[in-house]
Amino acid sequence: MNKDVLRDLSYGVYVISSKKDKRDVGCIANSVIQITSSPITLAISINVDNFTNQAINESKEFVCMILPTDIDNNVIGTFGFKTSAEVDKFEKMDIVEVDGYPILKDAIGYMRCKLIKQVDMNTHTIFIGEVISADKLSTKESMTYAYYHQVKKGKSPAKAPTYIASEEECETSNQKKYVCPICGYVHEGEMPDDFVCPICGAPKKVFKEVS
Amino acid sequence: MNKDVLRDLSYGVYVISSKKDKRDVGCIANSVIQITSSPITLAISINVDNFTNQAINESKEFVCMILPTDIDNNVIGTFGFKTSAEVDKFEKMDIVEVDGYPILKDAIGYMRCKLIKQVDMNTHTIFIGEVISADKLSTKESMTYAYYHQVKKGKSPAKAPTYIASEEECETSNQKKYVCPICGYVHEGEMPDDFVCPICGAPKKVFKEVS
Question: What is the ipTM metric for this complex?
């Protein structure tokens, strides 16, 4: 079986948010599809170890925000590679509040959903929601997962359904490599002093040399 | 509620095939996501009125083929806008047989799945399959649904989950318009005698003038 073909499936890049004990939580997801158009329903897949999974389970609501190609790396870094158990991910974000939910001002738009079904898939849960409100905030182009990998040189966190363990092993080069311990981004060659991780914004000093 | 934002979700373009009474059947789908990586599982959404839906229901197997940007329009036209109830969709296709299933030679790759769960969503069924064999056939770029609409000027059939009824009404022009009755493609301006529908390959003579 050649698992590489799974990488050729097309996805977007989304922030999925919910509430846990009245706190706003969220994470990055790429597995989002519309299921029906009347009523409008969405299916999303979230790792059971994600704090956002518990939050959706309890609050029975979630919001899906669509990220554009020019989204600030800090959004990916914060929502994709940190946990809402420890960090208030919305704290430093530019947001607008809609129906009590924080919406990222830089998102292309959002869909607020009421949970109507969920499917246990062991490591992941498929949450199916009915869209109860939705709006478009810009006419920018949606970031695809392929764009994130090719242009932004992004990596997948190990909890993503699309993570392939050998992802980092494909590169060959004689330059020194440094890995960001927060998001897994690998930088090749020397780093200037003001270098920050292009994915999560971590400073040069936290990078570890790859031996 | 602004439904337009639903169009900013990102999808690929796939042929989903299965078997019905030992016959190979299939249709176009864009709602395909990976759910888990161990075992590798996929979720797909198929309209209940699609012949392929019945086939998956009965055979408990399906194959997902990933289409590249340069896929022949005839593949989209045949699999997207005709029904396997009336037509042998694989008859004139260039295929290779794998484990008894026809695989389109022009696909980027395929995943053959054993059905492990299904979720009834009224107009659609979510089929969840475990990938039991998979291979990559080329290194071409995957066609995204956005590319299909923007570059190929493709339309969505009314049975697609992402169909928006007002889709055709956004255009304004003084030129005469002709609609393809098979796939819904709208052509503006005069058509040369050898004109064929760029989406489904239908000849000029079947086009109807839009009043």
Answer: 0.81
